[in-house]
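Example 283, ligand coenzyme A.
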Amino acid sequence: MKLDEILPTQLYISKSKYEHNLKILEKSNFKKYQPLPVKKIGEEIFFTDGHTRAFILWQQEITEINVYDDPDRLDWIMYLLNLKWCRDSNIISIGDLNDRIIEEREYQREWLDLCSSYQQKISQDPLADLVVEMEKSSKIKAQICEQILRSLPQWFGIEKAILHYIEDVKTLPFFKISIYSKTIGFCAIKVNYGVNADLYVLGIFKEFHGKGIGKRLIGTINEYCKQLNIPYMSVKTLSEKHPDKNYWKTRKFYEKCGFKPFEEFTDLWGEHSPCLYMIREVK
Ligand SMILES: CC(C)(COP(=O)(O)OP(=O)(O)OC[C@H]1O[C@@H](n2cnc3c(N)ncnc32)[C@H](O)[C@@H]1OP(=O)(O)O)[C@@H](O)C(=O)NCCC(=O)NCCS
């Protein structure tokens, strides 16, 4: 990958680690090194580790480096916070750490201790800084919808349908979910006859599933409906007649959020995609 296209997630580099890695890399004339781990969430690609080595390669004016997609299940909420810290300090590529090589003791205090104190806070309440708010700009709605649907091929694999959603969300009430200024999910709704808010399309980046974020989203939409005196919410999803495991999870989610199966439409989406219509009262 191009080195300057990978976002750093660290504010400092430890001098002793730098000197140690420099010696090792010098031996192979900066040619031999293990690929560096990166992660892609939406459009953003960031380092999950290996900042010191990346920085040394940057100093050697190397512009392309070997990377691999980090398979570990890391604390992605913490990484979003790290990305925000870096953005706020104008650290958007590895070379921006040029004047941030610091002595071990300072590194411990300024970086490692800072991270562990926030890690503790995040582990106590991972969603403390989660925001669910309405987005008005049709351009931004379309961008968010496209990024998230394209990251969920197990649920949204039909190109024609994705294009429809991207177009349709532009004019619909749209809720976006962000954490540390990064949008990680959304839901567009259709209000029918003023009595029913249909969850038209929704999704959250896979890295953030199962953390209570979807439930928070449904709660916010519930509040929106209450304010507008909309008594019902509904959603159409793939019915259990279809063996898809991912949609089994989606149905479990809706059930947990209080939706009940209401009717099945076997020909609405074509014979291979039986549709389950679920409803719930606004509470
Ligand atoms: C569906 C989706 C929005 C749910 O969001 P989420 O943040 O993962 O869900 P939550 O963590 O808030 O889960 C809420 C509840 O549903 C349950 N649930 C969620 N996923 C589940 C699963 N795979 N199996 C069983 N229960 C599940 C949770 O246990 C939780 O119950 P609890 O309150 O008793 O703990 C999200 O997983 C997603 O984006 N899926 C892919 C896209 C998609 O399915 N879109 C809808 C197409 S119709």
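Summary: DSSP finds eight helices and twelve strands in the chain.
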